[in-house]
């Protein structure tokens, strides 16, 4: 009976209280998304960022991460929406603003090239 008690005690330490469970789950999904994004696994990263946002939809940093993944997938309209929502939620976040500025610059360049093609 003793091993079972130890196992339950260990699991109790891992499982968060009901109040913060969504936040912790969202954080784990986002952290894993960042890890796989660093490996260039953008589809998996996007999936993880979307799961994180399903648990915590108003997380500005999570929206920023999703925007980057959408940009990598070439889904520029969706990326713009995610960046703009992130900035609306956290307008003073310098990192989100920098990412959005870089995105807009690249997007403007893409659009100019597209207009020049015959």
Compute the gyration radius: what is it?
19 Å
CATH top-level class: Mainly Alpha
User: How far is it from the N-terminal to the C-terminal residue, by CA?
Assistant: 77 Å
Low-confidence stretches: 1-19
| Main sheet attributes: strand count, strand direction, barrel closure | none
Number of domains: 1
What's the structural blueprint in terms of helices and strands?
Blueprint: H1 2-14, H2 21-38, H3 42-55, H4 60-72, H5 76-89, H6 94-116
Account of the protein in words:
The protein is about 80% helix and about 0% strand. The protein has about 120 residues and is mainly alpha-helical. The protein has one domain: Tetratricopeptide repeat domain (Serine Threonine Protein Phosphatase 5, Tetratricopeptide repeat). α2 runs antiparallel to α3, α4 runs parallel beside α6 and α5 runs antiparallel to α6. The longest helix has 23 residues. The protein is globular and about 50 Å long.
